[in-house]
Structures are given as structure tokens and as C-alpha cells.
Amino acid sequence: MIRFATIGTNFVTGWFLEAARECRELHYAAACSRSGDKARGFAAEHGADGIHTDLTALAEDAGIDAVYIASPNSLHFEQAALMLSHGKHVLLEKPAASNRRELSKLLEIAKTNRVILLEAMRSVFDPGFAAVEQALPRLGRIRRASFQYCQYSSRYDKFKAGIIENAFNPAYSNGALMDIGVYCVHPLVRLFGRPDRILADAVILDNGVDGAGTILAGYDCGMQAELVYSKITNSRVPSQIQGEEGSMVIREIANPREVTIFYRNGGEETVFAGPDRRNMIFEVREWVRLIREGAPDNPHNRYSLLELEVMDEARRQTGIRFPADDIRP
């Protein structure tokens, strides 16, 4: 049995716990929050054995084997480093860190302590994404990938009313690229590797946070990509991958439930059709598998590093800086 704790009491943590309940190998041992009242309320709601209000006490708790972290992005490095250094396995919400430098350091700590660090990039552990990977050769030579994720945030209404919450606060390493664009960047580098060049542009809001953006990417193999993301508009346009023999349409890149190939000769093939559901269960199962097998050098981390390389460069080009960029861990 893997006894785990959670850091964060937001709705995403609630979704994670729904998935964790489907894994018999996991037992919810503790909810952690700086607020005792929040921790107790969350623990009671979700069935945790106990609570922690101090991160060091949590890290030193011998009854905890693993920790799921869903705190603001800017806190990921400090909290994950503490847990890893005390021998805890960590599932770290996306993006895993504020920048590549931070993630590289976390991976060093994980390796030294022989524990698992995994970014909770739920979409790429989904069977729909596996179906996309397996079907790529049927498209012929790939020429273009167009990934879109534009979702109007309810917090944007508060932003326009002068209330700045974490999601629109660059001090917490947040913004459209980090919160939404990552769902486009990670699949790109996982399927096709790091682009040879990128060109990025962003819509910068009044407080310096990005509300939307576009990344154009080029590969020397003769392929292009365009990543379109937004927290201030919605989009009804699906994602797609275009090859010389056909185009693959993906209904939602962050939750690939419907995947269809339209062949150049007029044929059509349903590659994947799954139920609409939150797809966190698959990342949870992979985390458990890695813990059981004891594989700290898991291959998933390579793509998380590439993801942050691309995002670091996109932020450099668009002038987006976080306090974490000026701190050398």
C-alpha cells in the first residue's frame, strides 16, 4: 500500500482524489494546507486519515510514502524539493516547474534519493493519446501539427473587475502559456521532439501576465507546427496533424476522446472514441507503476524538460518573466 498526502485543497486536487480512489494501491493518509481549517475540511470531505499544516512536518512523516502537489506553479520547486529530499515520491501538477533549470534540479534530487518524480501531464497518459501515437505512420510524411486549447477562464471576469487571482498573477509563474499552452507544447515535443526553431507572440494583459498566445515551430525535417492557446477566449476548432496521406483530427488535445483520420483518397477512419471523463486516472496509474518498479529515470521526464525548454524560449521572446527566473536553486 502506498500512503500518500496532498498539498493543495483546490478543485484539481479533488479531481486527483477521484482518480486515486480507483487505485487500490493508494491510501489517502493526509491533507496538507497552511490553514488548519481548510486542511481539516478537505480531509473530512475526501476521507484523509489526518492533516498537516507544516511542510517540513509532512516531509518528515514516516507514515507518508508519496505526495501529490497541486499548489501554485511558483511553489512547485520548493515543495517538491523538500518532499523528494526526504524520500517521498512526487506527482507534480503541470507545469512541473517555473522553468527548465528548476526541473533539472528536482530530477537530480529525485535521482539522488531514488524516488519517483512525475509531471501530472494527464493528456499524454490517456489511451486516446496512445492511439494518436500509434496511428501517426498512417498519415504518411508529417507536414504540420496544429494544436489548440483556448478556454475562457472564469477568473478572467474577476481580473477585469480588478480582482487578481493566482491564475492571472505572474508572481505565481502563471498565465496562459503555463496553465493552458502547456497542453499544446507537451504533446508536440512528445510526438515530434524539440523544434529546431520557434517564433512566439502573446497577448499581454495590464499586469504583465499573458492572456493568450501563439507559438510557431519549425523542424528541419520539413514540418511545421502552430500552437494556439488562450485563457481569455474560447475556441471550437479541433487540433489536427496533417500528413501527405491524410489528416488526423483530435477533438480536444487536453482530453483526446475523439480521434479521426481523413485520408487523402476520401477514406475515413475512427482511431479512438472514448467516453467523456476526467482523464487523471491514467497518470495516477503510471505514477503507481513507476513507484512499484522503482524507476527514477523514467522516460517521461525527458519530455517535461523539452516542454520547459520550449516554454522558456517562448517566454523569452514575449518578455514574460517570473520571480523564479531570477532565483538560482
Question: What would your notes on this structure say?
Answer:
- This protein is an alpha/beta fold.
- It has two domains: 2-115 and 281-326, 3-Layer(aba) Sandwich (Rossmann fold), CATH 3.40.50.720; 124-273, 2-Layer Sandwich (Dihydrodipicolinate Reductase, domain 2), CATH 3.30.360.
- Helices cover 35% and strands 26% of the residues.
- It is built from ten helices and 14 strands.
- Strands 8-9-10-7-11-12-13-14 form an eight-stranded mixed beta sheet, with helices on one face. It has a six-stranded parallel beta sheet with strand order 3-2-1-4-5-6, with helices on both faces.
- Helix 1 (11-20) links the parallel strand 1 and strand 2 (26-32).
Question: What topology emerges from the helices and strands here?
Answer:
Elements: E1 2-7, H1 11-20, E2 26-32, H2 36-46, E3 50-52, H3 55-59, E4 66-69, H4 76-85, E5 89-93, H5 100-112, E6 117-120, H6 127-135, E7 142-150, H7 154-160, H8 176-192, E8 197-204, E9 210-219, E10 223-230, E11 239-243, E12 246-250, E13 258-263, E14 268-273, H9 281-293, H10 300-318
Parallel strand pairs: 1-2, 1-4, 2-3, 4-5, 5-6, 7-10
Antiparallel strand pairs: 7-11, 8-9, 9-10, 11-12, 12-13, 13-14
Helix pairs in contact: 1-9, 4-5, 5-10, 8-10
Write a compact overview of the structure shown.
The chain is α/β, with parallel strands linked by helices and 329 residues long. It has helices spanning 11-20, 36-46, 55-59, 76-85, 100-112, 127-135, 154-160, 176-192, 281-293, 300-318, and strands at residues 2-7, 26-32, 50-52, 66-69, 89-93, 117-120, 142-150, 197-204, 210-219, 223-230, 239-243, 246-250, 258-263, 268-273. The model has no long low-confidence stretch (mean pLDDT 96).
